[in-house]
Amino acid sequence: MKEITAKVNTVELINKDVYQITLQVDDLEFFAGQYLMVVLPTGEQVPYSIGSTPHELPNITLYVLVSDAASLASKVVEYIKSNASITIKAPGGDCHIHNGVLDSNPEHILLIAGGTGFSQIKSLYCDLVEQNFTGKVSFYWGLRTAEDVFAKDWLEEAHKYSPFSLDVIVNEQSDQWHGRSGWLYEAILVDNPDLNQSVAFISGSVGMVYGTLDQLELKGLSIDRCFSDVFAYAPHPDKPVL
């Protein structure tokens, strides 16, 4: 990863706790699915998936969840908001579609996101659209409540114009939500009961990634055909929690 200066274009709160940040970076090449590190003045380096695609350069997009004012994410957002430019390190990560997975001619590519794991999976999804990929691709995005859904304009456009399927699954039912609800893995398996010829990219918390993987393995998904940044830094917990 190399150190790069990025110009801050916009910092926008797009739902109750998710910020969409756009940066301009004139000296960056990356693959869809990779991440960058925001370098804070303290020396801390905080990773965020790049939520845009290479064809959108020099502009890149990040989605940052700020769960509370004392969090590291809050510190990152405040730092970016108060500076015209910031230092990043990029690119990083091997969870991308140029890692050889397409050479195996997969029958089906599953793109699975939990929460702001959306950022990485959106990048992969849009890149496959940009490449005019002709295979079967399904994007599943799981969130806890209807209030947690963000990037609604993008979702609307993707539903209209993208050639692949896109499903948002909210865990907790409510009067405000008229889409699919329940556990993310259950929705995937209802649609895809046999995953022997599928590959999957999964992005989210450690518990979400391994919990989803465990369920999909039962229906034929091979660990060798599943990719996640989580694999690089977190061992499989004994009792994964969805």
TrEMBL record:
Keywords for the protein's UniProt record, in alphabetical order: Luminescence, Oxidoreductase
UniProt-listed PANTHER family: NAD(P)H-FLAVIN REDUCTASE (PTHR47354:SF7), NADH OXIDOREDUCTASE HCR (PTHR47354)
GO molecular function, one term: oxidoreductase activity
Organism annotation: Marinomonas primoryensis
Family assignment from sequence similarity: Belongs to the Fre/LuxG FAD/NAD(P) flavoprotein oxidoreductase family.
Official protein name in the record: NAD(P)H-flavin reductase
GO terms for biological process, alphabetical: bioluminescence
SUPFAM superfamilies: Ferredoxin reductase-like, C-terminal NADP-linked domain, Riboflavin synthase domain-like
Keyword Transferase: no
Domain FAD-binding FR-type: 1-98
InterPro entries: FAD-bd_FR_type, FNR_nucleotide-bd, MRET, OxRdtase_FAD/NAD-bd, Riboflavin_synthase-like_b-brl
